[in-house]
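Quick one: co-fold with flavin-adenine dinucleotide.
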Amino acid sequence: MMAECGCAPHAVDDYILPVTENIKLADRIFWMTFAAPELARRAKAGNGVMVYASQGSDPMLGRPFAVADAESGKISICYMIIGRGTELLSKVQPGASLRVRGLIGAAYPDSAKELLLAAGGVGVGAVMLKKKERAKSASLYVGMPGRGCEALADKILSIHPDAKIYTDDGSFGEGNSMFNVLPRPLGEGRQLWCCGPPGFLDAMRLYYERTPRQLYYIIDKRMACGFGGCMGCVVETANGPKRVCVDGAMFRADEVDLHDD
Ligand SMILES: Cc1cc2nc3c(=O)[nH]c(=O)nc-3n(C[C@H](O)[C@H](O)[C@H](O)COP(=O)(O)OP(=O)(O)OC[C@H]3O[C@@H](n4cnc5c(N)ncnc54)[C@H](O)[C@@H]3O)c2cc1C
Ligand code: FES
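Sure, here it is.
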């Protein structure tokens, strides 16, 4: 199905895609890979997909996820079990096929000379492709609880060996908080993009309160259509209401109201 509203910056189609992997990486966190040659070729950092947890109509709506990796004709998502849709997804066996709508979301605008990418937990999925695109000119910082998250860290490091992992309990990684090492203030030409739970984003805002224009949030929001037609994903910004699915998902931290629900 092709989106006809002209809202999305690129074609948004529905595909039936074979699941090649669906593995548990930590408590409630999974990594799912689809054979998807066309989407893998087109995917850019900032893009996501809507995954329908079953091929029937229950649940009716797809669930949006960032494309965490795209390589060798495959795309992957890193997802957390939140409710019914993601619970159903976690039960899907390799070999099954699911309906996937994509690509949603605009490619991230990027003008930073030096990029810091910071993620809390499963938020890492939203920044991994950017790290791949920028290679050594971006640094990836990931925070996670610690014990029980070893497979999540291994997966990230298998794709980005220079990622810096921080664990709340200090059981492995580089220390117990990225806030001990993140450079502050952010100098000219440097940006920090972050994705994670609301408390993590709030902490970033506080940490960079002197350089708020260089701090960017990648935010998630419930979505219905994924291509700009339903207004189900609107966030309030300094430039008026914006749809996460076609105008985002990245917003300057001082321009977006995270707590508008
Ligand atoms: C652009 C975008 C990218 C995303 N990328 C990822 C990703 O890479 N990995 C990942 O794990 N998740 C991601 N999400 C969030 C993911 O879509 C939701 O967690 C998922 O839709 C929840 O579905 P569910 O059926 O399990 O939960 P539901 O049964 O729909 O909801 C359960 C509870 O969670 C709440 N909820 C539902 N959706 C969200 C949401 N988006 N944010 C916060 N609370 C929510 C509901 O209000 C409800 O209380 C992304 C969301 C967006 C918009
Ligand atoms: S999900 Fe429909 S407009 Fe964004």
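If it helps, The mean pLDDT is 91.
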